[in-house]
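User: Need the bound-state model for beta-D-glucopyranose:
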Amino acid sequence: MLKKCSFILILVINVFIMQSCEQKNNLKPMGDIDKKVNEILAGMTLQEKVGQMTQVTLSVLVKGNSLDAQPEPVELDSEKLQKALGKYKIGSILNTVNNRARSLEWWHEIINQIQEVAIHETGIPILYGIDAIHGTTYTAGGTLFPQQIGLGATFNPELVRQLNEMCAYEMRASNIPWNFSPVQDMGRDPRDSRMWETFGEDVYLNGILGSAAVEGIQGKDVVTIDQKHGAACLKHYLGYNSNSGKDRNPLHIHPRELNEKHVPAFQFPINAGAKSIMVNSGILNGIPVHASYDILTTLLRNEMGFEGLVVTDWADIDNLYDRDKFASSPKEAVKLAINAGIDMSMVPYDFDFCDYLVELVNEGEVPMSRIDEAVTRILKLKMELGLFESPTTDYENYPDFGSEQHENLALDAALESITLLKNDDQTLPLKKNIKVLVSGPNANWMRPMNGGWSYSWQGEKTDEFAQEYFTFLEAIENKIGKDKVTFVEGVSYDMQGPYYQEKDLDISDAVRVAKGVDCIILFLGENSYCEKPGDLYDLYISENQTQLAIALANTGKPVILVLNEGRPRIISKFEHTMAAVVQTYLPGNYGGTALAEILFGDVNPSGKLPYTYPMFPNSLINYDYKPSEKQERLEGLYDNESDVAIQYGFGHGLSYTVFKYSNLKVSSSELTSKGSVNVAVTIENTGNRAGKEVVMLFTSDLYASINPDNKRLRRFMKIDLDPAQSRTIEFTIRAEDLAFYNKENRLIAEKGDFVIRIGDLEQIITLTETVTFREPSNIML
Ligand code: BGC
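Assistant: Bound-state model below.
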């Protein structure tokens, strides 16, 4: 009944909004978007244009103090709305109030009211943006799937596309059309508190999965976006990573490295039609990216061909003055950012940006052409999203919000991401008739399973919202019966506190119980965090957790270590005592169910590590390291096939079956500058159960004028094989796939020999001539 009432109210508001839209702008639903945008732009005042370039957080518009927790129930404050939309004519709003998820009904009421006022005051609908990072973070009842690092581990672009499509659907069901996702930053440093928001350490994998995510969010039509899809926002362009464990630390990345291992992660999804980009909040090579004309205009617009909307990150224009000491005043900060190429400022708390920008244009410090360009992009996106025709949606039209079908997709993703890292003596899969001890701080909470951006920014409200889903412990109990499972947490997190806060260490109870069971399933890792609060001081897993692992291993019972963590915390002090190791990453609400399926053999694991798991804090390395970084094996500590001191390599992941690779063939041993070589390989499932395998093609440049990488991932494909089934697959390699940036920063492929490697098979091909693909640009990055 309640639902029905609000449905009627929404209809009435929708009709009103649509009429107002047509009266104000006389828009027809279809037609030439550019022409319509120009018409609207021509009728706008400077104040109106600058308003469109302004984004504030929703807290600014509701009753209560925007910087503090606001009273519940949250209500819009009509005076504040009037100020934001009537006086400042703002164009965009983001996030939610009191940093917590809300119901579908709530979102509809709030956004419908906002749109009504926006259209009445400005004639232009608001562009509402949100961080729907692994599902609709801020809508209760939505479908939360694995965080992006887990999606990296699936190596499955089609699955990533489907998940993002589902996310867009649930976001539109929530009345929100703009998603600040996917993250195209490179997860190359395990200390980074945002590593779990990335697809991992390889630029090609990032590019392919990022494009799939964009296609999922926006739909297949690259121009207009229907009401089941939304606009994607690639972030955080460019070079936003931490190499110190401290979020937003300044970075120095050589232009060659930027071009080769960062730019393509954005270029691929730009080519796939991404509608917007959010800027790196940090400082790159001495210059804050928000003030870099070279990065925001010369590279992004002129070289990469991006035509969409560029939005700042949180308060980052202010940061040019306040934090970075780059601008001499807040007003100069606005001038630098807008002239560098920013289209919209995520302010987010006040309207000074509007005042300064109007003054700067009147003073001739910011050209009107720059304003018109930015506003054109903003209006265009609003139009492409269909907001002028339908500024709001009706959640009744989204019957699949939180549906079983969506749950199943999230479960599939968790199943495909979970990665079996070690399995001595085929410890896994476990039999269902055994007695187990479940222990560890990650065993029985939904918060660490989901990570940050889950019901709130830091994820600390997850257990309040996710009660209906199964923790790891509950899922194991469901699978084999409660009577066979004893739970002793051993170490516990402070669930309301920061991620590193641990409470008790109770080893004795766990050890006592361990004596009476067949095996121990130990859940270690991290609690949830996001951005700065996730800063890290020591990459080793906590001392408490280490002690618990060692004590349990000393009982002589086989210990299965299940990791649940946003970044690879070092486990080398006890990894050699573990019978099996499983990485779940941050698997979302269906992670418990998925893990139980895998542990007890109902599903064969197929995830592959999307990063290099370090063994020591001083041996941080990526798989594409330089030959001289190779280290000798460390006797006793070292037991995998790689020659560097790492725990597990990029792409590593075991299965319950065996895949045999054979017949690696190249169609020609010579590759010409314009030609291609087909690479074929046969994979056979020689084990006794069906399984999925990720076939990866790597190349190595044997000699090059720039110290070449050890190897590079160039192609991959995930396949499904029944027992005894085999399949021959083919990849095509061109000269461009072998290219790198040379000392003049020119993209070239140098003639000479290259190794093509799939599994443990190799072939050599020769590139017959040197070829240039891109001339160096004149910019200093
Ligand atoms: C984060 C972005 C996010 C934005 C809006 C920032 O602090 O860096 O990733 O999209 O907040 O919530």
